[in-house]
Structure formats: structure tokens, C-alpha cells
Structure prediction request, 300 residues.
Amino acid sequence: MGQFIVDVNDLSRSFGRKTALDGVCFRAAVGQVYGLVGANGAGKTTLLKHLLGLLRAQSGSVRVFGLDPVRDPVGVLSRVGYLSEERELPEWMRVDELMRYTQAYHPTWDASYARELIEMFGLDPSKKIKELSKGMRAQAGLVAAVAHRPELLILDEPSSGLDAVVRRDILDAIVRTVADDGRTVIFSSHLLEEVERMSDHVTMLQDGRVTLSGELDDVRRGYHRTRVRFVESFDHPPVIDAALVMEGGGRTWSVIHNGSLEQFHRSVLALGGEVVESRDATLEEIFLARAGRNRQVVAA
Prediction:
């Protein structure tokens, strides 16, 4: 198994004519937080379901703790905490009954930690799941997923239904606590600011393929947002080396680009322009650039 507790190699999966995953490779190490980003239908949930043994690989391989999660579900799932996007919880149970039910499957269950989280969320243990709001269901599911202190925590869109305060203050704290304890978190989210805030590593999926993967700091350092100004006015975006997305019009343009800053500067200079300011791109800007959503706003 080595240092990686998750090792996905050349994984492909189709549903009819739809390719959900296409040659995906993904690894996760101990004590790190991994963010999966991508548009709806990019393959994030499908990848997570393979890690849980809910789907069998059609080609390629999946290993979690060195085990095949399809062939040895007990060996894998006893060490994993999981919160699904659908929040699939037994509606007839009360919150306290859900905790006792989950505890029965996990000898490592930490009852005091579960009570602490329930109090932190303000959940009523006597309420039935069906009586809870969407946000409260997410909170109850999160407690059940983390209270046995799993070695691997898998969260599929964990922020769905949670208000901004809970997302930033509580979810962040739980994720960082898991990682600081030397355990691993893999979570998918459409909230790129959240992924940027919580992740050590980011993997971007597009149409079932990994288009970008690396340490978050390294990824951000590889992309820049630069404002440039030209002597002449352009009706259409000028051709600049390594430019991925351009916004603006006339003499002033804002450019998302990758590669060498020096080469970018030379390209701008060759067109009679100058760099006004430059900074590392945000994850959202990188995602939009990689997704090819170029936008041009021509000044009136």
C-alpha cells in the first residue's frame, strides 16, 4: 500500500453511451485533504462511489487501504466515513437512534465526540430524521460519518443544505481536525472558494477526465491573472502566448494565463503593450479557464 491509502489507476466507467470516467488516475496520501472539483456530470460522484465499492471498475483498478473495495467491503468500509450528497438516512429513526445504529458497526465510535458535534450543531437528539430540515439532515449525517474517527472521510457535496456560517465555522473545523489527526479527507464540491480554503490538494474533472491535479499551492502558482494595457485599441482579444481567458476590450484586457511570466511579458511587449499588474489566479478563475469558458466584454 505504501504511503497512499487510495490508489486509482486508469479507471474507466460508462453508463450506456455516456462515458462517466475515462482513464482516471488518483492517489490520496495520509493526513491530507483532497478536493474534487468539476461541473455537474464531470464524474466526481462516480469516482467516489468506486472508492466505496458501490460501483465496480469496468477497466482499471481501485485500491483503498490496499484492498479492492468491491471484493472486501468490510475491510474498507469499517475504516471509512461517508456522507452522500443525497443524505440517505433512515427517516423513521430519531437522531439519537441513528447514532446508536451507526455505533453498532464501528468499534472505534467516540460517543463523547458525537455528543459534542450534536451540541455544536444544535441538533435535537429526540427528533426524527424526517422532521429535520435539509441542513439539519446534512449535520446529522456528518456526525454519523465522523464520530467513529475514520481513517478516510469521504464527503460528496458536504455543504449542500448548510448555511454559510455552518460551512465556514463547523465543516472547516471538522475537516481540519480529521487531517490534523493524521487521517485523510476526500470531498467533492461545486463551491470552489470552499475547496480552495480547505484543501491541500485539488483534482479537476471534466467530462470524466482528470484535467488538472496537484498540490493546491503549486496549482495556483502555475496560473496568473494579469491586467495588460496596449497603445492601440483591439476590437477582439489579441493573441497572447499562454492566454486562456481574456476579458475586457479596447486598450485594456484582463488575462488568465499559465506558463512563464517572462514569456507572457515578452508576448505582450511584442504587441505594443505593458503589464499593469499580476497576481496568482484563484481556483475559480483556473477552473473557468480550464473549462474553456472564455468571456469577452468589449468596451463601448
Summary: Residues 222-298 form one domain. The longest strand covers residues 243-258. Residues 123 and 136 are 7 Å apart (CA to CA).
